[in-house]
Amino acid sequence: TKMTSTSQPKWMLTWAKFTDPYSRPTHETFPELPDCVTIVRMFIGLVYGISLGYRGVEGGIGIMLGLSSITFLPLLYVEQLLKAQVAEYPSNVTFQGVPNAMATLILAWTLIYTMNHAEMETAFAAGVKVAQTIITDANGDIGSSDATAEDEF
């Protein structure tokens, strides 16, 4: 870890800047802002995904509310509390890290939901096994006729 002149790790100083209210960061004074926003978005996605999984939420409402939370909560913080000059950043801070955070949300949601619904996973696995058996039997019947390809031509 890179140390600064104040003998604190660089990441601590970065997060101190990110949590300093009304600091009005710009690209010159705080170039790490997009990275911090991405990390916060991924954390929100992880926590929200775990919450959805434990509550057993199904359907698109979880994804829509998750997308809204991941996108707009960090923006509200950055624009309203930090008063950052988001337009000055070369990268698009508005949506940076949203796909990563959505992937984290869906992964956490699926993992926790599956852990809490083992009986559904067992039933699904049995259905897959039946489908494999049917496909295997169907493929086996096609080539099992007495006539060979040479006899047919």
From TrEMBL:
Family indicated by similarity: Belongs to the EMC6 family.
Protein name: Uncharacterized protein
Record-annotated membrane-spanning stretches: 61-78, 98-115
GO CC entries: endoplasmic reticulum membrane
Top-level taxon of the source organism: Eukaryota
Localization per record: Endoplasmic reticulum membrane
Membrane topology: Multi-pass membrane protein
Keywords associated with the record: Endoplasmic reticulum, Membrane, Transmembrane, Transmembrane helix
Organism this protein belongs to: Leptocylindrus danicus
